[in-house]
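Lecture notes, part 5. Sequence design as translation. It can be helpful to think of inverse folding as translation between two languages: the language of shapes and the language of residues. The source text, in structure tokens, appears below.
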């Protein structure tokens, strides 16, 4: 673990993930493949892959982790939802927008039910959905997602907050594009 941490500190993400992979195998044998400790190690490794930009390798791991956490902690557990969210992020990065949108919305439904529409996680998911729609050329749908998000960001963080300004800028560009 310390070797993996050192590599991570040096931003050698792929190597850090490989070192961790060498720990996961023996830990799975000793503790069980779905023990909380092993799932934690696998989650850490998958996160390292994402940080390093290796979404192709991270995606199947996050899918497997989401399923494992759904079995062990419940389908709406924080860990299961976070892995589903990370899988959606990886899919978006890999150009699998339709599935990514479905997964982001699935996670958002559960987050809204437990934490509300203006929780930090819900706000982030709503931004992800809006920007992904925009990247897919769905400007009208993106605007429909981003305008209520902007309104909520103004209430939660204020109109001068960085995240609020970012969404305001996107909405302004959408208005200019729609008008021109």
């Amino acid at each position: 673990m310390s070797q993996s941490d050192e590599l991570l500190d040096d931003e050698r993400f792929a190597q850090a993930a490989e070192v961790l992979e060498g720990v996961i195998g023996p830990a799975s044998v000793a503790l069980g493949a779905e023990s909380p400790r092993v799932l934690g190690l696998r989650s850490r490794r998958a996160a390292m892959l994402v940080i390093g930009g290796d979404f192709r390798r991270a995606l199947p791991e996050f899918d497997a982790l989401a399923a494992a956490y759904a079995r062990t902690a419940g389908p709406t557990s924080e860990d299961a939802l976070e892995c589903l969210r990370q899988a959606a992020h990886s899919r978006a990065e890999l150009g699998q927008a339709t599935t990514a949108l479905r997964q982001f919305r699935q996670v958002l439904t559960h987050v809204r039910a437990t934490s509300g529409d203006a929780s930090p996680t819900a706000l982030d998911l709503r931004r992800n959905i809006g920007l992904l729609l925009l990247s897919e050329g769905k400007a009208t749908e993106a605007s429909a997602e981003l305008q209520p998000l902007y309104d909520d960001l103004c209430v939660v963080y204020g109109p001068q907050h960085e995240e609020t300004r970012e969404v305001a800028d996107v909405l302004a560009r959408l208005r200019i594009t729609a008008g021109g």
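The translated text above is only one of many valid answers, since several sequences can fold into similar shapes. The mean pLDDT is 92.
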